[in-house]
Amino acid sequence: MNITDLTVRYGSFTAVDGVSLDIPPGGAVGLVGESGSGKSTLARALVGLAPVSGGTITGLPPGRTQMVFQDPYHSLDPRLTIGASVAEGLRLPRREREAEVGRLLELVTLDPAVASRYPRELSGGQRQRVAIARALGARPELLIADEITSALDVSVQGAILNLIRDLRARLGLTVLFISHNLAVVRYVADVIAVMRGGRLVEVGPADEVIHNPRDDYTRALMAAVPSIGDRLPVSGERRATRR
Ligand SMILES: Nc1ncnc2c1ncn2[C@@H]1O[C@H](COP(=O)(O)OP(=O)(O)O)[C@@H](O)[C@H]1O
Ligand SMILES: [Mg+2]
To answer: Could you report the per-residue pLDDT of 4-19, keeping only the tens digit for each?
Structure first.
């Protein structure tokens, strides 16, 4: 998918300002930036949920993009069983649906038996897996994950990140992975794009952006993440830090 000079305006406020970004098939691009920088608006524009006032989006197969959001509590209907929620979007004859629901739940490493349970009976991490299973039911080529670990306990975040990596490898998914947390993005993405005030201030291979950031803002984001920031001076010349 190719995004060229994409702009989204709300009245006189420009939420996304001339963003160009390439997301190659099978690639995983991480979009990072502080809250309010325009990440979700960019994602929403890609699926037609935000008003595009300029620029182009090409190579995005219609109907082959699915989004997963931060809050797994609100993305599932509390009145529906997990099985019914996952089955909802499937265009399959009734008798094939149950098997497909089981397959999707197994894909996200849930016991297919959870199909008969209700969202309130599941943990946040399990609910997020269900939300991912629902998205996969539409057989997307591009999966947009917007802060999908941000509402979860740190102890389950890693498992969800591993799941995304695993699904990408198994299904050949293209992934746009969005987080305010650079450490989280780094774990999933091969390319990192850094957004600030609606603009991309830096885009590059993940290792390069992490180890040799060109923008001061990227350095500041890194300083906010101890596990990365520790190894990198935030400003001034790079020192040889050995720990
Ligand atoms: N529907 C909307 N109407 C007006 N302003 C909006 C709307 N959606 C988002 N914004 C504004 O756009 C900016 C970027 O928001 P958002 O894309 O949600 O940022 P992020 O996901 O990086 O936290 C914010 O200042 C937000 O208030
Ligand atoms: Mg957001």
So the answer is: 999 999 999 999 999 9
